[in-house]
Amino acid sequence: MFVVNVEGAIHRNGKWLLILRSEKEEHAGGTLSLIGGKCEFEGFSSDILERTLIREIFEEVGCEVTILKYVNSSSFVTDSGMNVIDIVFLCLHKSGEPYARSKDEVDDISWMTTSDILVNTELPGYLKENIKLADTLLSKSDLRENKI
Q: Per the structure, how many domains does the chain have?
């Protein structure tokens, strides 16, 4: 059985929003990452991935986004042995100035350019790959200029 996790690659003014995960987090505490969280059991529902992502982003950093496109999906196993399916979406910042709203989950936020992320040797390869894919999606359309 898998846990389903969604993440948002949030873009604004040429930069990506990353969080410094709280040291209290069971998985990847103290690392930079995209923003998101696990889907909760809802029975029969629609748009659960999108609704979960919008909720998690607001809970963790207090801003609203527009979800634009699917970026990719992957799977991994946490240190505690939990199997996770991770789905990343390209998002544009809509409103609210992001901040570390959920102190149990987020220690800090930062905005970084694609090139800053790709050359940072401390960032995991999967984060760099997700940003590269999201940036490619952004550059293939009018999305970069927020022309939706």
A: 1
d(CA 11, CA 62): 15
Characterize the bridge pairing of strands 32-33 and 15-21.
Answer: antiparallel
What is the C-alpha to C-alpha distance for residues 31 and 127, in angstroms, rounded to an integer? 11
Dist. CA 144–CA 148, nearest whole Å: 9
Pick from 67, 64, 54, 58: nearest CA to 102: 58
Specify the 3-state DSSP secondary structure of 74: strand
Domain CATH code at residue 15: 3.90.79.10
Tokens of 72: 């990719």
What number of other Cβ atoms are within 10 A of residue 140's Cβ? 10
Angstrom distance (rounded) from CA 39 to CA 32: 21
For 37, phi and psi rounded to 5 degrees?
180, -175
The pair of structure tokens assigned to 108 is 């800090």
The model scores a pTM over 0.85: yes
Range of the domain at 114: 3-145
DSSP 97: -
Task: Give the model confidence (pLDDT) of 8-49 as tens digits.
Answer: 999 999 999 999 876 566 665 567 999 999 998 888 889 999
